[in-house]
Design a protein that fits this description.
homodimer, 5-stranded antiparallel β-sheet, 12 helices, DNA-binding, WH-like_DNA-bd_sf (chains A, B), WH_DNA-bd_sf (chains A, B)
Chain lengths: 338, 338
Amino acid sequence: MLSERRLEVLRAIVQDYVGTEEPVGSKALTERHRLGVSPATIRNDMAALEDEGFIAQPHTSAGRIPTDKGYRLFVDRLAGVKPLSSPERRAIQNFLDSAVDLDDVVARTVRLLAQLTRQVAVVQYPSLTRSTVRHVELLSLSPVRLMLVLITDTGRVEQRMIDCPAPFGETSLADLRARLNARVVGRRFADVPQLVQDLQESFEQEDRGTVTTVLATLLETLVEETEERLMIGGTSNLTRFGHDFPLTIRPVLEALEEQVVLLKLLGEAQDSGITVRIGHENPHEGLTSTSVVAVGYGSGDEAVAKLGVVGPTRMDYPGTMGAVRAVARYVGQILAES
Amino acid sequence: MLSERRLEVLRAIVQDYVGTEEPVGSKALTERHRLGVSPATIRNDMAALEDEGFIAQPHTSAGRIPTDKGYRLFVDRLAGVKPLSSPERRAIQNFLDSAVDLDDVVARTVRLLAQLTRQVAVVQYPSLTRSTVRHVELLSLSPVRLMLVLITDTGRVEQRMIDCPAPFGETSLADLRARLNARVVGRRFADVPQLVQDLQESFEQEDRGTVTTVLATLLETLVEETEERLMIGGTSNLTRFGHDFPLTIRPVLEALEEQVVLLKLLGEAQDSGITVRIGHENPHEGLTSTSVVAVGYGSGDEAVAKLGVVGPTRMDYPGTMGAVRAVARYVGQILAES
DNA sequence: GCTGGCACTCGAACGCCAAGAGTGCCAGGC
DNA sequence: GCCTGGCACTCTTGGCGTTCGAGTGCCAGC
């Protein structure tokens, strides 16, 4: 068990290292923090912290830097979440309020997060599986060509082309549109498959082929789009990463290009509460020198998607967590309003 | 006027430098290219090329590297466009053919371009101004809430929420929908404003407010969405940029984050034919050490949008130009089919 | 107009040394 | 028992001079 002061020393080390990017020594610590003891004492504490694996020395005659384990302890026990200032809050709200559609909301959220945290921001589009259907529209582009448009309660829109096996009249189309909407509007996407499964039976023989095709396309859209989309931004913040550039930044950029990786990353975050993954806690290889701070957001109580930032393990955790939480909260509000 | 051989020397310098990333000397040139003369002669030629500003020495006792002006001459007079191999062509076609919707087409195009050229790829979504209207849909979400959906011939879909000043009945809605479509389907977006300007006059007094609102929203959407969207990818290729990382890469990443900058960049490319902007020819400050290779693409004869890559001035121009042109061609085909 | 020869320049690499930061440990004091 | 001042030790960092080699420019000769 670590004494109170040793924890205090760890906190001081983390804070200083985050600020200066340089290994911090015992003397510097006593100068910048009122620890009430001499450097020699701090040295003993540091030796103990190193034995426990919370800090490490890059080389023998250098100061100490926190390890992943050290950051973990810091985040779990030593640091709170730093709330944003009220000007910041107002700025967020203003900026998000002027969004015109869902794409715009997401785009603005990304910019905002990247600016506030000075890190790479990742925002997932509201998920289809947890959303409900607001409307299904069928348009006839030609007698044998339909367009299916799917609108969610979060404002997301998906469309698909459909080639009909046989000409499909306007009355049949209106009929199908009405029946389809009657069954699925307001329901969750996950429930749609059962809700429409016997729909084609109520149609004339000649139209059944088309109806079946439409239903198949609808279900396909649901499945395909469960592969969620996301938007990232603030990659130029990666340049503030460290000194040994190419090696560090390369795998990160590569990971960021892989939507699958990012979705998995966000997916592993808890539904509620802020999740912080530090360095090697990250499953993906290219991201072992980064930390991920993620949180769910949603229009109601439940999270419909997640957002977060990716940055160096040496980051300002309290500030980042505060910004991420605040942005998630406001985006949730915006979505609820629309 | 430069002699034939001196041009040949310039070509050799560009090729070698692009391959090795290192200043190329007279001896190395004679070894790798059959120029038929001795290093001393090459040195004279190089001195001449340097006088003309086509090549430069990083420092006195180093080899030469091409200047922007040198690359320009190379691109204009010395290099052709290298066509892709037929396996590559087949791969492109296969990859693009399996796209499910417009977003997917664009996303795949970006990946493809980035992979083929090993550079940062930028693809603009098909522009609204040059597109035609395929369909306008109006959905009633509640008696006082409408959704406007706009579908283009390139498959792009835009939607907007509309709050009606007064309740709007289903029959009025159907009427408006029919009249709207009758007027604008198949027409260019640019022509829409005049086509709908007196539409509200044929409606009952009580509905006019709503009709006016709908029309206003439609026009607003046209204007707003003329601010085009685009997608970028392959940023991890920036790591292969050069040796002096942070300074070079930072402004590039920043420029890439600014959609406005990129749109302007692509916008300045010619409508037909490949445009190559080299180094300082680029208007944007952060991109003075990059070259941009861009080309228009479209479903018909006319370009509806542009795509291209951004890379170091030291790039394989013939190969890059070949890849960009080929990808643009295939994307055009895909769009024409859908 | 090309070529071989030659002197020259200059950056990269290396080794060396001194300075400074930081540590670990120990003996003494509260 | 814990803290502290002192001290020897370790290593990195930066400056400096030297060497090495690539590449150049120029010139005389063919």
